[in-house]
Amino acid sequence: MKVAGIQLEMSDRSKAENVEYAMARLDQVPAVDLILLPEIWPCGFFCFDRYAADSEPLDGPTVSAFRQKARERRCHMVMGSLVEREGDGLFNTTVFIGPGGEIIARYRKIHLFGYQSDETRLLTPGQEIVVVDTPWGRAGFSTCYDLRFPELFRRMVDSGAEIFLIPSAWPLARIEAWRLFNRARAHENLAFLASCNCAGENLGKRYGGHSMVVDPWGRVLAEGGEHGEMVTAEIDIREAAKARAEFPALADRVFR
User: Fold this and answer.
1) Active-site residue flag, 144
2) Which of 12, 105, 145, 201 yields a CA-CA distance of 20 to 30 A from 47?
């Protein structure tokens, strides 16, 4: 399975410009099985005053454009997250698209970030843990701040997750925590993890980059730097089952 994370270099562009930029970066990705983009890249995580204006439903133009792109490329795509509008609610929603352009899953971020952030004030937290079948194995979804809550990842493992897919807008100021949590969530669950973080900045606040692909032993297979780039790796998800059989820590849990 070939994975590519598009670590977008954010700046204070309009939504239309960000979509155009992301589409251009997509066209530079070689043939892969799975593409990931970061969190709330259409407007930028820190652009809280744009959340409502830039929001759209899942049948809106941004998701529709990426469904068409996935269909053209015949690959699976985590198009990152956007501010989804449903009724009177706004959600931080990750969309997982199949090679036929179909929406396979929608994950609404459960743990909203309130530290020096308006996300908790503006958005509604999700309620559902999302784990779905893929051609390679079971995939579980989380978003950015979710990484700090290991119980979510154990719940995904209990639903069969063998790989975690994580869009993010993690800031540079706490990048060492990001690198730690990526490795810890993978190793403690004996699962693969692929994360895609923003680079660049919005409103003077800098993102950390360092998108990662981590194996079930916590080994970093690929890692980006602090600027916009593509992070790629080739993995065999069957190695997760082998790791769990060799070192059966999950079976030894007392509290379930």
Assistant:
1) yes
2) 105
Residue 256: is its pLDDT beyond 80? no
Check if the beta carbon of residue 232 is closer than 8 Å to that of residue 204. no
Structure-block tokens of residue 243:
């790791």
* pTM, 2 dp: 0.97
The backbone torsions φ and ψ at residue 22, rounded to the nearest 5 degrees and listed phi first, read -65, -40
28 near 71, Cβ under 8 Å?
Answer: no
Choosing from 39, 84, 119, 162, the catalytic residue is: 39
What would the pLDDT profile of 222-243 be if each residue is shown by its tens digit? 999 999 999 999 999 999 999 9
Distance CA 66, CA 203 (A): 26
Q: Which of 69, 75, 109, 119 is catalytic?
A: 109
Domain CATH for 165? 3.60.110.10
Q: What is d(CA 170, CA 179) in angstroms, rounded to the nearest whole number?
A: 10
* Residue 33 structure tokens: 């099985």
Q: What is the 3-state secondary structure (H, E, C) of 213-248?
A: EECCCCCEEEECCCCCEEEEEECCCHHHHHHHHHCC
Q: Indicate which residue of 43, 144, 196, 198 is catalytic.
A: 144
| Residue span of the structural domain in which 79 resides | 2-252
Confidence of residue 255 (pLDDT cuts 50, 70, 90): confident
> How many separate domains does the chain show?
1
